[in-house]
Structure formats: C-alpha cells, structure tokens
Write a structure and sequence with these properties.
mainly beta; elongated; 0% helix; two-stranded antiparallel ribbon; single chain
Length: 76
C-alpha cells in the first residue's frame, strides 16, 4: 500500500484509493482507451496503415508520468 499524502492508501499499479494487495493488474486497466494508459512506455508501428491500432505496452506502472518522446530513427 502506498500513501498518496491525502489520507488515501492505494495498492501498486492501481487507481487512486484502490486496495487490492497481491492482485495481478492487467495493462490498460481503467484506461479511457483500450490502447492507452498513463505511466507506461508504449510502442507502435509508425509505418503501419493505422499506427494507433498497433499500440501495445512495453512497461507500465510508473508514477507521475509526463511528456512524450520518440527515439531517433535512421533512414537508409
């Protein structure tokens, strides 16, 4: 359990104030879009016809996320 500083305790990788010790939490749980989540590193095939449909999580559970960064690409 983590103290958010406002009197609420939350389990890791869970929405604010949710208690569920030992639970397995799926990626994208409680997200507003089935391919988006905050506090995650996502990847997508940017050359795909519909890149937004190729988004998938690589790592998630980071607290206080901000910003967006794309790795440099090399062109042949």
């Amino acid at each position: 359990m983590f103290d958010s500083g406002d009197g609420d305790l939350s389990s890791g990788y869970s929405p604010h104030g949710v208690h569920r010790p030992g639970a397995v939490v799926k990626a994208f749980e409680s997200s507003t879009n089935n391919r988006m989540c905050t506090g995650a590193i996502l990847r997508a095939k940017v050359n795909a016809k519909t890149p937004d449909e190729t988004i998938e999580p690589v790592s998630w559970g980071y607290r206080n996320p901000f910003g967006l960064r794309f790795a440099p690409t090399t062109m042949p």
